[in-house]
Structure formats: structure tokens, C-alpha cells
Amino acid sequence: MENKQKIAVLTGGSRGLGKNMALALAKDGVDLIITYRSGKEEALATVAEIQKLGRKAMALPLNTATISTFDAFITEVTSHLTEQTGSPNFDFLINNAGTALYSAFADTTEEQLDEVFNIHYKGVFFLTQKALPYINQGGRIINISSGLARFSFPGSSAYGSMKGAVEVLTRYLAKELGPKGIAVNVVAPGAIETDFGGGRVRDNKETNAQVASVTALGRVGLPEDIGGVVAFLCSEAGRWVNGQRIEVSGGMML
After folding, report:
1. DSSP 6
2. Which residue numbers are catalytic?
3. Which of 12, 22, 197, 253 has its CA 20 to 30 A from that of 47?
4. What predicted TM-score, i.e. pTM, was given to this entire model?
5. Percent of all residues in the chain with a pLDDT value above 90, rounded to a whole number
């Protein structure tokens, strides 16, 4: 039996994989605070879907590349939770927000690299650091990586490298946060049919077929293939999984 209501903070929860993660968590009985960068209407629609499942939810704007806004964001989150629950604390942090960059190594600019670094590594590092005092004993942190940290496709050198960095960071967090009983894991999706990166996996038939051809289960991933894995890692059943990279790719590039 659960002693108290579990609460998750999930970045980039308005659409795509983040939305599916949010709904999967809600179906498992978790209340949510999701963030969005610009899609407020999509975020509010996701909140409404969560509420239809009988869970509490709210959406807050956050650009995870802008570290200077994190203090105000954490204050907003903890003030809301204190008002709603009597405590500023929550249980799960899912670092999902991200953008795509498809650029040949030879053509990647410093500005492009800085943006990917800020969103996919520096933002994850410092948002987790700022959130840490408010994550309950026995909580979970889940960082979202990518199959591109394991296998290499030309054009993803910057993006894949940052995801690799997050995977190493995850192991260090698992070690350092062990005394607080917080488990930290990576979920690494393979190629998924969403609007991510302009929808190229979803909308480009050649790309879609090529991914399916190198995937053991013979198709491209769907958002609903991912959310349940995140929910599992936040469940009591997933309590002993720690410091691990779980690739959810249908067996891509084996």
C-alpha cells in the first residue's frame, strides 16, 4: 500500500514522448507537474487528459536551456505543492525536454553546439541539482537519452555526444544519491514516430523503412512504446533498478 500520493515533475510533457510518459504515470496513480517551452495549448490539453484519468496535474513554462530561470521555476513548483499538499517535496524527476539537431560534424557551429549542450546536458545537470533538496527519500530520477548514444548515424555527433554525457552523469548521480535512497536511471528510446526533429522518422517513408529494416521487431517505435517503461521505473516494482541504461528501441542496430 502507498502511504502518500506520489508526484512527478516531467519536463517537456506537452506532446510526443513526454505526453505519453505523463499519461502512463497518471494511469499508475501519479500526480504530475509538466513543463512546456512554447506549446501552452498542447500542454493544457495534456493536463486535461491527465485530469480525466483522475489525477491532479498542472503545466508550467520552462526553457531547460536557460539555467537562470531554474530558481524561479523550482520556487513555483514547491510553492504550488506546499499549497496543495502541505509539503514542497515530490517523488520523481523526469528530464525529458529536448530538441533535435541534425548537422554534419564538419558543419556544426559553436552556436549549435552550445544550444545542444545547454538543453541536453547543462540544463539536465542544474535542474536536477536545484530539484534535489525537494525529491523525497526513495524517489527516482529518470534521464532520457537516445539510441544515438550507442550507435552512430551521420549528422547526430553533437546530439549523440550530449546524450552520452548524460548517461555517464546518471551513473554518478546513482552513486552519489544512493544514501538518500534515490534511484537514477536512463531510458534511451530508439527512433520513434513523433514530430521530433520535424517528424522525419514519422513522415519520411524512406527513413521510416530504413529504421524498421535495422530493428529486430521490424518497425519504428511509437510514443506508447516508451511511457510504460518510465512508469515502471517510478513504480514499486522498479525500485531495485539503479544506475542503468534501458534502451527501448525494439532491438535497433543489434
Report:
1. -
2. 159
3. 197
4. 0.96
5. 91
For 24, 29, 83, 96, the CA distances from 178, given in Å and listed in that order, are 26, 25, 29, 22
Question: Hey, is 211 helix, strand or coil?
Answer: helix
Nearest CA to 57 out of 90, 86, 95 is that of: 90
Task: Specify whether the CB–CB gap between 148 and 168 falls below 8 A.
Answer: no
CA distance 196 to 119: 15
> What is the pLDDT at residue 11?
98
Helix or strand run (H / E) with residue 100: none
Q: 70 Cβ partners below 8 Å, 6+ apart?
A: 126, 127, 130
Three cell numbers, residue 129: 541539482
The pLDDT score that the predictor gives to residue 204 is 78
pLDDT digits (tens, 9 = 90+) for 43-82: 999 999 999 999 999 999 999 999 999 999 999 999 999 9
Distance of alpha carbon 95 from alpha carbon 65, whole angstroms: 12
Count Cβ atoms within 10 A of the Cβ of residue 67 and give its class: 0-12 exposed, 13-18 middle, 19 or more buried. Answer: middle
Q: Residue 214 has what DSSP assignment?
A: T
What CA–CA distance (Å, rounded) separates 70 from 14? Answer: 19
| Calculated CA dihedral for residues 198, 204, 206, 211, nearest 10 degrees | 60
Amino acid of residue 215: T
**What is the DSSP track for 223-254?**
GGGTHHHHHHHTSGGGTT--S-EEEESSSBT-
| Alpha carbon 87 to its chain's center | 24
